[in-house]
Design a protein that fits this description.
2 domains; 19 strands; 32% helix; metalloaminopeptidase activity; EC 3.4.11.10
Length: 470
Amino acid sequence: MIFKHVSTVNTHKDVIVPCRKGQLAHLTKFITIKEPDFNGEFSTVQMLYGAEGNRVYLLGLGEEKDAVKIDEAFRKLSFDYKKYWKAPVQVVSDDLSEAELQKAILGLEMSAYDIGTFKSKKDEANAITFEMVNANDITNILEEAQTIGATINRIKTLVDAPANQKTPEFLGLWAEESAKDSNYKCIVLHEKELKSQGFHAVMAVGQGSVNQPVVIVTEYMPKKDGGVDIGLVGKGITFDTGGLSIKPSTNLHYMKSDMGGAAVVLGVVELVAKLKLNVNIVGVVASAENAVDSNSYRPGDVIKSYSGKTIEIIDTDAEGRLVLADGLSYIIKEFQPKQVIDLATLTGSVVQTLGYTAAGMFTNNTEMAQTLSKIGFDLNERVWPLPLFDDYESDLHSDIADLRNYSGKPVAGAITAAKFLEAFTDDHKAWMHLDIAGVSFGDSPYSKMKSASGYGVQLIVNYIKQISGN
C-alpha cells in the first residue's frame, strides 16, 4: 500500500467517505442522491456514483462505542473492493480524530496481508495508492500507522508459516535479519551455548526434535544509562505435538501457531526500533519444537532449569511453561528489567474462560494491570485479569522435585500455569503474564481456515509508549 496526504477532494477519483451512524449531512458534497439507502451502521458499505461518474464508497463507522474497531471497518472495505481499484483512491479523513485516522490507515494497510505465501500460483496484487484527504499535515500519522500495519502483517506471516519452514533456527535467522534492517542487536544462542549456560528446560522440550532449540535475545537500547525499562519473554514452540502426552489429531495442523507469543515479542522489538522510541527494551524468545521421538522427554522425568529449580514432568504437553521458565529466569538475572511481560499461547483453559475476545492477564502489580487494561480496551485488544492466589500453589507440589509442571486437575489450568511461571520470576515486583491462546490465532473473515490475528504487537508497543512517555 502507498499512502499520500492531500488537502482537497478530487471529484474525478474514487473516494471513501466515512459516516457515523445518523450523521449523513456531509454526503451532499459527494453524491447526488438525497436519501441513500444507508444510515452509517458499523462496517456497512454502500457504493454509489458521484457527479463525475466516480465511485463513492459510503463506509459506516457506527456509534461512539464502535470507535475502538474502526480499523476493522476500513480493513474489510479494502479487502472486499481492492481488486477493483487501479487508480488512487481518496479517503476523506477531516472528521476523524488522530486516533481514528491512525486506525483507518492501519486497517487499510492490514488489508494487504496475503495469507497465500506458499501458493504456486498467486494473483498479482495491485499496488494501491490511498490519498488521505485532510486539511492538516498528517504525514507523521501516515508514516507511523503504515509502519505499525506493515510490522503486524510481517508477524502474521510468521505465525501462519508452516512448521517445516518455521523451525527454531528459522526464527533465529528471522530475528537476525530484522535486527540488521531495523538497527537493533540480536544474539541467537544455539545448542552449545544453551548447554553451557544452563537452559535445561528449553533443551528438554526440544530434545525429541531433529530441529534443535534456540534462545533468541534481542536488545534495543537507545538510552545510555538507566538500565532496561522493559523485558519481554515469548513462548516460541514452532510446532507442538504434545510430546509423548500426544495431542489428538483434530486441528493438530494448527499447532504451527504455538509460537504466537514469540511472534509478538519479535514484532514489538522490531517496531520499537523502527519508531525509534526512547526506551531500553530486551526481548527473549525461547524456541523449541515439541516432537515425539525415542529421545523425547517423558512424563515422570525430573529436569533442571536455568533457575536451578528442578521440575517433575507430569504432562509433556505442558511444555510452553517450561521454555518460558528458562526465559524468565534468564532475562531477570542477566538484564534486571524494571518491568517484565511474558506472552504465550499457553493454555486451552484460558479459552474456556474468556473465549476468543480477551487475553488472560496475570499480575500482582495493580498499576501495570490498570494501564494495560485501558490500552487494551482503547485498541480493541482486550485483556482481563485472573487471580494469582497463593491457594493455587499446592497444585504444583511435587514429592520428588521442587515443583511439577501440571496439576492434573480439570480446573484452573490457566491459573496454575501462571503460578508455575511466577515461581521463576525471583519475586519480581513488576511481572505480568499474558495468556493469548484465544486471541492470537483463530477464525477470521479474511481466510477460510484459522489464521493469525496480529494480536499483541500494538498492545505492547502502546503500553511501552505509555510507561516511557514516548
